[in-house]
Amino acid sequence: MTKGDANADSIPGVDYPIKQGNYVGKVLYVIPKLGLLTKAISPPVNYILISIIIVILFFLVKPGRKENSKRKV
Length: 73
Hints:
Elements: H1 34-40, H2 45-72
């Protein structure tokens, strides 16, 4: 049976038993201990890392535009 995270009980008529035919995919490979990385990169660390990556990408992409415009002239 399935239910939402905020529901204490199943909802009759909505939460149906899941059968094998309802599965969409299957697990092909498991990377052990990868979940520890997601725990280590929790807020506010993840916001800082995302900001750094965006700034680096901004500076890497910006010079590429200038080179392309010089070649066309």
